[in-house]
Design brief:
Layout (H helix, E strand, L loop, with lengths): L16 H4 L1 H14 L7 H15 L2 H13 L4 H29 L18 H6 L1 H15 L6 H14 L3 H13 L4 H21 L1 H8 L3
Length: 218
């Protein structure tokens, strides 16, 4: 048994998955193949999104596989780094936007619903009580989402996928509107969300390699 939880050699254990759950392994493979087919988004774009989502799931196997796939499809390292900064920005934004729930929890007049769109009107409360940190976040978010090697439109598409992976309704709302403003289609957004779905499933799937290693089947 390997001493490290993340020895690359453990990935070979995934070859055994079909022996233990053949129907499920086949269905996952077909799901993954369908998601990564060329469509409204190119294979390159889907692999860039996959790298971004793999940094949400923090799955080293997924980061390794999809970084290599993205490179094979022609993605530059600068594009991948920018995509991961979108992930970082949206994850930071999830905490920031959820501060509106904290504000509501401290208010006797707050609505009973935790996820009203109107909650975002209270976002300035965070800046009021933590000015320097909030300004720092705002500057970081602007830098992460500005046009670079990746277009603003594509960054918003990535952000929508990340919003679904982080289960942040505020992020989904804000970035779906941002993507729409930049000209993203429903087809592009839907395909991006399915990449997020496949990566969430894939993180669990890939870690079956660790399960098999720990069980002692190797």
């Amino acid at each position: 048994m390997a001493d490290s939880f993340y020895d690359k050699s453990q990935a070979k254990n995934l070859n055994k998955v079909k022996d233990f759950a053949p129907e499920q392994a086949k269905a996952f493979s077909e799901f993954d193949a369908g998601v990564f087919k060329e469509g409204a988004l190119t294979k390159k774009e889907k692999e860039i999104i996959a790298v971004a989502i793999a940094h949400v799931t923090e799955c080293p196997y997924c980061i390794d596989i999809h970084t290599k796939n993205a490179k094979k499809e022609g993605a530059a390292l600068e594009e991948l780094v920018e995509a991961v900064f979108v992930t970082s920005s949206v994850e930071a934004g999830g905490a920031v936007t959820h501060s509106t729930n904290m504000h509501n929890a401290l208010s006797d007049d707050a609505d009973d619903s935790l996820y009203e769109r109107s909650n975002l009107k209270n976002l300035n409360e965070l800046g009021k009580h933590a000015k320097d940190g909030f300004q720092g976040y705002s500057g970081f978010n602007s830098a992460a989402m500005k046009e670079g090697k990746l277009s603003k439109k594509f960054k918003e598409i990535v952000a929508v996928a990340v919003g679904h992976a982080t289960l942040c309704p505020y992020c989904i709302d804000v970035h779906t509107k941002g993507a729409n403003k930049e000209g993203a289609t429903r087809e592009e957004l839907s395909e991006a969300v399915l990449v997020a779905s496949a990566l969430l499933a894939g993180g669990s799937y890939a870690h079956i390699a660790n399960l098999i290693e720990s069980y002692g089947e190797v």
